[in-house]
Inverse folding.
């Protein structure tokens, strides 16, 4: 794959609750797989606390370094929800009350008999010029500023928001994969796998040991944009395993 | 808590398989909670691919910025396991074959009838002057260089390694917590919680909405080093919820 066709993204997970271990992040694998399917490679993830300077610095670094930046967390109504103001500061834009966001929230509140208050109105704040990201679960929208997509942290809401972004994202060639799982230890495979990696420098060859109920397993995962290339390398991996006396099966990743 | 007594740490998760979404990281919450119990605050997490320049840059930045840096992943025998050489380069130290690590591995291999080979011997490589981290699961050790602790990515092995580090880590006052879970929406709590945060600027007050089987819930999580302070703030939160007509219970976090 030509370097120029690799489209990259970073994910910035915002929230003390992830760093304390209280909340287990479930958004990383969902976003990774969703982007992968669009030909966008998740290339870095950072988790930062609810501290403005840390958020702003990470937003500015990651939006420069990668084609897209996605953030999760910190867009609710409480005092610890500071993502919108941090993204505004990162872009040196004013934080404004977004008329469309306010209108959507007011409609929802009227329907549900929820009182409007100052805290709830914070959820209508976006950087000036932001484009909203629909929230079909609980209305309060996310937003996009240039290549930065700001989403909720609650997985159900994040997933709904992410689902609406497909048409705004332009990916490269999707990265395809093959997984060969075998019963040989990594130490026996390593030399042969290293030689295959040298032979196919553009194929991402990973080796992942795990403990399954049936015993120790190694998954050899191959990634490339060309299905024929993957088939060839997978064939070589199967031959390698067979030559070493191992048993293998090819799995979908 | 005096600022000078806050002991901080970062976690660097190394591996393409996390960024592809194939492997769901389970080490972050384990390490976060383990450190928290020792009075060490996990303050940042990064996930980077198996790319030397990215690993080296992250190691050098994070070991400078925080009191401790923990890494997971990339210390096996295969070509994609490059953590040891990257940490050596980050510290500008030679990568050597560690005699004690080799001796442990040879003993294990002899017992188990495993052949020694070049790839397996890579697991004995450490930066010069590194201190080993025991691996009671599969022998191949992790290692420590100054304030950087290099551990395996497989959770079972990482947990065993982490368990042996307690005596090498010096924490500050442990961060204690209280959790008050209630049936009010965040938008009703927000104003009162913001006022409490202003009243107790040194208490970390977080508000976390979730969908439970029983319906929508908000957990208000309080963190501080002083149990009496936490009891006082938790009392104020309970009063706030009661005044707003909600029901609450205090939970262990």
């Amino acid at each position: 794959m030509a370097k120029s066709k690799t489209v990259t993204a970073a994910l910035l997970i915002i929230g003390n609750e992830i760093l304390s271990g209280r909340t287990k992040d479930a958004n990383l694998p969902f976003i990774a797989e969703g982007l992968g399917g669009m030909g966008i490679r998740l290339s870095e993830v950072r988790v930062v606390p609810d501290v403005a300077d840390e958020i702003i610095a990470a937003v500015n670094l990651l939006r420069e370094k990668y084609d897209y930046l996605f953030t999760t967390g910190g867009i609710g109504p409480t005092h610890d929800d500071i993502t919108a103001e941090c993204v505004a500061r990162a872009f040196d834009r004013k934080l404004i009350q977004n008329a469309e966001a306010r209108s959507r929230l007011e409609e929802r509140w009227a329907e549900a008999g929820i009182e409007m208050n100052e805290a709830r109105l914070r959820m209508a704040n976006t950087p000036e010029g932001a484009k909203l990201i629909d929230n079909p679960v609980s209305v309060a929208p996310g937003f996009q500023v240039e290549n930065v997509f700001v989403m909720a942290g609650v997985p159900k809401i994040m997933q709904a928001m992410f689902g609406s972004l497909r048409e705004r994202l332009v990916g490269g060639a999707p990265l395809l994969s093959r997984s060969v799982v075998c019963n040989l230890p990594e130490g026996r495979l390593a030399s042969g796998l290293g030689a295959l990696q040298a032979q196919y420098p553009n194929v991402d060859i990973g080796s992942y040991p795990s403990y399954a109920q049936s015993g120790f397993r190694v998954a050899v995962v191959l990634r490339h944009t060309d299905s024929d290339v993957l088939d060839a390398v997978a064939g070589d991996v199967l031959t390698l395993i067979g030559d070493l006396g191992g048993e293998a099966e090819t799995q979908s990743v």
Q: What stands out?
A: The mean pLDDT of chain B is 94. The domain at 176-251 of chain B is CATH 3.30.70.260 (Alpha-Beta Plaits). Chain B has two domains: 3-168, 176-251. The radius of gyration of chain B is 22 Å.
